[in-house]
Amino acid sequence: MSALLEVEGLTAGYGAAPVLHDVSLTVDAGQIVAVLGANGAGKTTLLRTLSGQLACEKGRITVDREDLRGVKVERMVRHGIAHVPEGRGVVTELTVDENLRLGGLWRKQKPKLDGIYDLFPALAQRRNHLGHQLSGGERQMLAIGRALVAEPRLLLLDEPSLGLAPKITAQIMALLRDLRDRTGLAVLLVEQNVRSALSVADEGLVLALGRVVTRNDAATLAGDADLRHVYLGF
Amino acid sequence: MTTVTAPEKVTTNRPKRKRLSPLAVVIPAAAVILALTYALPPFRNYQLATVGAYLCVTAGLTVLTGLNGQLSLGHGALMATGAYTLALMQNRFNVLALGILAAVAVTTVVGGVIGLAAARLRGPYLAGLTLAVATVVPSIASTFDTTFNSDQGLTVALEPPPDAITVEQWQAWLCWAGALVTVLVIAYLVRGRFGRDMRAVRDDETAAKLAGIGVARTQVLAFVLSAACAGLAGALFAVLAQSVSPGAFPLTLSLFLVMAVVIGGLGRLSGALIGAVLLVALPEIAHSIAEDAGSQRLEGNLALTFFGVVLVAVMLAAPGGLASLRLKRNKQKGRT
Amino acid sequence: MDRFLYLTFDGLSRGAVYAAFALALVLIWRAARIVNFAQGAMAVATAYAGYSVTNATGSYWLGFIVAIVGGLVLGALVERVVMRFVDHSSPLNGVVVALGLVLIIQGVLGMIYGNEFRPAEAPFSRDAFQLGDVALLSRYDLFVFAAVGTVVVLLTLLFTRTSTGLRMRAAAFAPDVSRLLGVPVSGMLTLGWALAAAVGSLAGMLVVPTELGLHPNAMDLLFISAFTAAVVGGLDSPVGAVVGGLIVGLLLTYVSGYLGATVAPMAVLILLVVVLLGRPDGLFSRAKARTA
């Protein structure tokens, strides 16, 4: 079986100076891959390129062998890609319910939100609250929940633990693992919080200055003291 | 000169060469104009005079919008203030110098009141408020009709000029004297601390405040300065037309003034001059086209459309809008 | 007292038109953060088109429809051809470009139709019904209320009940996030302009028979009143725009009725100054941010 997401020789960035150089990676269905690296390594740029917000200058991006180069951002969701940006991207002027509905609008049929509310009972209680009335953890759950409404095959998740209490981070990581196991969702997870990312990921990928320096299964990476020291700083 | 390399230096890089003293520009200009008034036929002299009168107001506006970042759509109304003041003063005292001084003084006060409000407003709010000001002129003229005589307006009593020169020549002298004094005053003002403060406020209000610049004070002063200029221009227009009426200061005039400074290039007195010339030349060109076509409907409307098209084109062609019209200028200055 | 009643109804009828026009301004402000200073000129243009059709066919309603559809088209065109390419880093850029459009539209209208007032017929009688000795409302006033009321209800339904409305709101509030969720943001912006311009055209059609008639500058004062109405309500608030419109309509009518018509523009200016300096965010913007 070939991988769900295949990236080969990707070079991308902002204008004249590329941030990513010759990046290759694969994510299988039902696999969580953590993208690790210091600030400025190109992690967010990678996600933004995959979801079409930045142009791919060189290389190939395919999902299920479908070429995604040149596909517009607003069409990506139709290719099964959901991107939860850093800072969560909850539309604070809309209610919880409206935010969730927004996730499923690209489909003809009415989105089924009940499953999401089952997954996040905290959101169910606040469905008519506005986005800006939610706590940080609730916003993160809402953003992930909204991405799930689209029923994606691949979830691009940027720094879900940012600014959250460890307990809530752990909940979110557990949820990702659960989703992977139940639905076969593939996740590309960008994290600064290496420990919690590797606790949930199957594999890890280390970016440094826009290049992939290593890729290995999560347990090995977590145990590799040199690597941790040099690239991840703990 | 070498080209500017570091992008962050573009705005701060002042040309190294010594700038011409304003007097070194104004005195030769005065001589040229004086010579012109003897060479030109009366109608051209009248047009020359009109350019001078327009230059007064566009010079003030280019300071307000270009250097201080405030957009006023109400300067037509300020011109009306100056014009009516002059008319009332002339009809009572018939001393032109006194009339002009009073016109500038009264408009300065009115501009101060609007400026105080303007300093608290930004962007579209300020534009909307000044637009509303521009539309009340007929309303005021009709409401206080015993003073302003409604739509008919007032005639302006004027002493005839000396026999040696024509009326138009005298008008050109008068208007250009006003214009050159305005330009001189503004040129000296913006070179100093006031100019620096205005640019600082325009570029970043918070930073300006942190640097100890009185933001509101600077904005009000800029508005008052431009209002005084508009008052002078209005007074000169009243002299040119020898009458004042609300119809001479329609909303379109206020819009034309903004167009002129934007098209001429913001924040520069030479831009104000280009704008003033355009304000006279474009309607003239449109007029001759309309005459050739024999169509009355083209008259006026063609100029309107010209202005609109040029304005939209300029704004779309300049990638950063108004701000880039300023930047481009700096770069050019750096090269020449 | 009779006069007061009459003026009140007249003011509400005028206010309904201002409300529709203010609503058009608010729609574009919410979608694009631009105050469309060309709204008045655009409405005049479509009113000319509408009345041209009415005069050619003899049917007011055909002209009415042409004007509204013309508004949709003109709004979309202005967004696609011009406003899309304006740099919006400074709010002044949009204002200046809109003013350029005003000059173009007024110039072109003047060239086609001339600069004299053209009479415009009302579809219903403007004679007020009598209740005892008191003149209250005309059929035309009722038509105005019905038309504006319909628009308000339709817009409310659109924004609160439909997917398209949700998309439009999301695209306006958070364009980048909306794109990631599959919302065609630029299409929503065009739609916002089209809808706003159509509402503006409706207001234009409603106001023309009550004023001197069609003229390239016919909406200059209407624009100021509507801008004031939108500011009174807070530029962000559709509810505020409607209430603001009614307030301005009443104020103008009372001032015209008791102090004289020439005083009215000054009253609008004073109201605008007072609101801008006293409550620059309008009377309703805060409440709106909490409830919508």
UniProtKB/TrEMBL annotation, chain A:
Annotated SUPFAM superfamilies: P-loop containing nucleoside triphosphate hydrolases
PROSITE patterns: ABC_TRANSPORTER_1, ABC_TRANSPORTER_2
Cited Pfam families: ABC_tran
Superkingdom of source: Bacteria
Signal sequence coordinates: none
The keyword Transport is assigned to this record: yes
Record-annotated ABC transporter domain positions: 5-234
Protein name, per record: ABC transporter ATP-binding protein
Organism: Paractinoplanes toevensis
Gene encoding the protein: livF_1
TrEMBL record, chain B:
A GO term from the CC aspect: plasma membrane
Pfam families associated with the record: BPD_transp_2
Official protein name in the record: Branched-chain amino acid ABC transporter permease
Main location per the UniProt record: membrane
Domain of life from the UniProt record: Bacteria
Bilayer topology annotation: Multi-pass membrane protein
UniProt keyword list: Cell membrane, Membrane, Transmembrane, Transmembrane helix
Compartments it resides in: Cell membrane
Residue ranges crossing the lipid bilayer per the database entry: 20-40, 46-64, 95-118, 170-190, 220-241, 247-266, 273-290, 302-325
Gene Ontology MF annotations: branched-chain amino acid transmembrane transporter activity
Keyword field contains Nucleus: no
UniProtKB/TrEMBL annotation, chain C:
Keyword Plastid part of the UniProt annotation: no
Key words of the record: Amino-acid transport, Cell membrane, Membrane, Transmembrane, Transmembrane helix, Transport
Membrane topology term: Multi-pass membrane protein
Gene Ontology annotations of biological process type: amino acid transport
Transmembrane segments: 12-29, 59-78, 90-113, 142-159, 180-203, 223-251, 258-278
Pfam families membership: BPD_transp_2
GO cellular component, one term: plasma membrane
InterPro entries: ABC_transp_permease, BCAA_transport_permease
Main location: membrane
Gene Ontology molecular-function annotations: transmembrane transporter activity
Membership in a protein family: Belongs to the binding-protein-dependent transport system permease family. LivHM subfamily.
Name of the featured protein: Branched-chain amino acid ABC transporter permease
Organism: Paractinoplanes toevensis
Upper classification of the organism: Bacteria, Bacillati, Actinomycetota, Actinomycetes, Micromonosporales
